[in-house]
Write a structure and sequence with these properties.
The complex is a heterodimer of chains A (372) and B (323). With 372 residues, chain A is mainly β. Chain A is built from 3 helices and 29 strands. The longest helix of chain A is centred in the middle third of the chain and has 6 residues. The chains are: A mainly beta (372), B mainly beta (323). The interface between A and B is large, with 92 and 81 residues. Strand 27 of chain A pairs antiparallel with strand 26 of chain B.
């Protein structure tokens, strides 16, 4: 199904190349790019080593940990941080105010009697009692907090008699503490590839398949949805490629552990991070080099993503008093994703993907963002 | 880098412990915009107790704008609408703040670091992290900042009629006539009641632009901008012209250089493709090919709700709810 949409800031001037055949066209003009509130920014791509350290006690008795904020929601308090423990860190048992996950990157973290090395994982839904924890000096962990702030309350028991599986859960099923490790899990095919039998999409992936180790899979929270959020170790072998232009109806989050993924936003390797809100599109990706790429991924659902062919973004207008052929002067539509200095600048992020047309003497310009 | 933020409503944001080092007392802050690479930030701070800090210098170029309450800067008493700025490394007198005071605090080029000291960090203190001047940096204090408005010198030939209706109050200006990517401008911008600047196409700048609503209402393509509304717009990002919401409005605005209004007429942004396996008319499935700016729940959707006809989008119609 063809679709097209416009955002128009001044009197529209529809070029002859415009696709008028889509069933959604209204007199050749349509604006359905409305965007609902987004307070957790689209981050793609940042590298953790570019970010500053903040002091954070993570619920301990003192400032014994530091964090780098990879992504933050300043309205709900949700976010993802990289934590490092410079000294021996500990905290008593208690509960979190948000649904919380830890993934150990290096060192040693203990949760009660469980010792978690690299690949270790713990999840505690909001309000669920978590045993005392320690972290050896030099340890690093990713900490994900959803549906609430990251605050921790020392306590001998749960927050209440009944604790949900997630703060969004209305199933009536009790929440549980999950402790796991990638070392003890088996590989399974990436569900979104295994379930995708479309011949068109298979042509987009003509290399070997990727696979995952599921650290946590959240069964549907209500009868109204079949979405199953998942936290997993994802691995793509050398030669893996996805040439499709796709998006999901749910968020996607990833942190680079090893290997290199090359795609439209740059090179995602160790320490690289993205948080992609629902419906944001991404384009072709492949494993670079001869080693597998491993990412820690969190997805709002494992369903097959939606695909778009022949995508285009065209920005055109009449430049009154600037040179639209100059990247330092030509406009950017809005809202590019957050990147860090190791990746690209604001200007470079947009314009290298554009094919600026030579401005006419009248200042008319058309930029077509190249898409696969 | 900072995210394109447009519009967030400050009252929607969570509170953090205030990043005010070497101080006594308690305060908390809301992060309007934060650069996680260098620690620069724009914040609203509420002092929850009487607060004080000895003399010293900041790591960042630092600006305070008092929203209400009382701030003592050495012997100077600052109240609502008063402002001061200290470049990084310049010694600032001892400070004290009364409980309940609210201020906007802006940091540039560095984090919250503060060193207790009676003298400057170095013999020479630059005017700022983005200056092209060889003149020494100074402590800038502006009191009664909403008096003595000056004409607006900015605007293109085609928009001078409405730009002239704006009045400015310069709080800090570091001109850079040679290097247009250097310098600084922090000012108040006042629009008279009913001013209508629409119809001049869209606009963008080579500098970052940041605004906080102090009074009144502004209507523009991103929605309705009210007291407490905030935007941070990176370089080159377009925005449309605006009109006043009826009673006149005042914004605190900051730009990291001298402002040049680049105008575009007949701007069209076209997004399209062939949806292989989804319904592009379903709001839950339609793709977003260009990322969206950060936006508060209170600001509503952008450009607004159910698909508005273009005419409504252009008229500044019911794009969003108020903060």
């Amino acid at each position: 199904m063809a679709f097209h949409s416009l955002r128009v800031r001044s009197a529209p001037e529809i070029g002859p190349e415009y696709d008028r055949e889509g069933p959604r066209a209204v007199s050749g003009r349509l604006a359905h790019l409305e965007v609902t509130a987004v307070v957790r920014p689209h981050v793609e791509l940042v590298y953790q080593q570019d970010l500053i350290w903040h002091a954070d006690d993570l619920g301990s008795a003192g400032d014994q940990a530091e964090i780098r904020r990879l992504s933050s929601d300043e309205e709900s308090g949700a976010g993802t941080v990289l934590a490092r423990f410079g000294t021996s860190w500990s905290r008593p048992g208690g509960y979190h105010q948000g649904d919380t996950e830890w993934f150990v990157l290096s060192g040693l973290v203990t949760v009660g009697d469980a010792a978690l090395g690299p690949g270790g994982y713990v999840r505690a839904p909001a309000g669920k009692a978590t045993p005392p924890m320690t972290a050896a000096p030099g340890s690093q962990a990713l900490i994900f907090c959803d549906n609430g702030q990251s605050a921790f309350v020392a306590s001998a028991g749960d927050w209440a008699e009944f604790v949900r599986r997630s703060r969004l859960d209305i199933s009536g099923l009790p929440g549980e503490l999950t402790i796991s490790s990638t070392s003890g899990l088996g590989w399974e095919p990436a569900p979104w590839e295994a379930a995708d039998h479309s011949a068109d999409h298979s042509a987009d992936r003509n290399g070997p398949a990727s696979r995952i180790k599921v650290l946590y899979r959240q069964p549907p929270l209500t009868t109204a949805t079949s979405a199953e959020p998942v936290t997993a170790l994802w691995e793509a072998p050398p030669g893996w490629a996805d040439r499709g232009f796709h998006h999901r109806g749910v968020f996607a989050e990833a942190y680079g552990l090893s290997g290199v993924i090359e795609y439209s936003h740059g090179r995602l390797s160790e320490g690289g991070y993205l948080y992609r809100p629902p419906r944001i599109q991404t384009s072709a990706a492949h494993v670079a080099g001869d080693t597998p790429a491993q990412l820690l991924v969190r997805l709002g659902d494992t369903a097959v993503p939606w695909h778009t062919s022949k995508p285009y973004v065209r920005v055109s207008g009449h430049a009154v008093n600037y040179d639209p052929s100059t990247a330092l002067e030509n406009l950017v539509p809005s809202g590019l994703s957050v990147t860090s200095r190791s990746v690209k600048t604001w200007v470079a992020q947009y314009h290298p993907r554009a094919e600026p047309g030579a401005p006419s003497p009248s200042g008319r310009f058309v930029n077509a963002i190249a898409t696969p | 880098m900072r995210a394109h933020t447009e519009i967030v409503c400050t009252d929607d944001l969570i509170w953090h412990p205030a990043e005010l080092a070497r101080a006594s007392g308690t305060a908390r802050q809301q992060n309007l915009s934060y650069d996680e690479e260098n620690g620069a930030a724009s914040t609203r701070v509420l002092f929850t107790s009487d607060w004080s800090r000895p003399a010293g210098y900041h790591e960042a170029d630092t600006e305070w704008y008092v929203l209400n309450g009382q701030v003592m800067l050495g012997e100077r008493k600052l109240g609502a609408s008063d402002y001061f700025r200290a470049p990084a490394g310049l010694a600032v007198p001892p400070m004290s703040v009364l409980a309940g005071t609210q201020v906007l605090i802006f940091r540039e080029f560095a984090d919250w670091g503060f060193s207790v000291c009676d003298s400057d960090r170095h013999e020479f203190t630059p005017r700022g992290g983005n200056t092209d001047s060889d003149q020494p940096g100074e402590l800038t204090i502006v009191q009664d900042s909403q008096a003595d408005w000056a004409p607006n010198p900015y605007g293109t030939v085609t928009e001078q009629d409405f730009q002239r209706k704006l009045k400015l109050k310069i709080l800090y200006h570091d001109p850079s006539p040679v290097r247009r990517d250097a310098g600084w401008l922090t000012n108040l911008v006042s629009a008279p009641p009913g001013m209508d600047g629409t119809g001049h196409g869209v606009e963008h700048h080579h500098v970052c632009e940041e605004g906080y609503g102090l009074s009144g209402r502004m209507d523009y393509d991103y929605g309705i901008f009210l007291p407490g509304s905030y935007f941070y717009r990176p370089p080159l990002v377009q925005h449309a012209d605006f009109k006043d919401g009826g009673t006149g409005h005042v914004l605190l605005m900051r730009v990291n250089g001298d402002l040049i209004n680049w105008k575009t007429e007949n701007l069209v942004v076209e997004v399209g493709g062939q949806a292989a396996d989804y319904d592009p008319a379903d709001p839950a499935q339609a793709p977003i090919m260009i990322s969206a700016p950060l936006r508060s729940a209170s600001a509503g959707s952008w450009p607004g709700g159910a698909t508005p006809p273009i005419e409504a989008a252009l008229s500044g119609g019911p794009h969003s709810r108020s903060c």
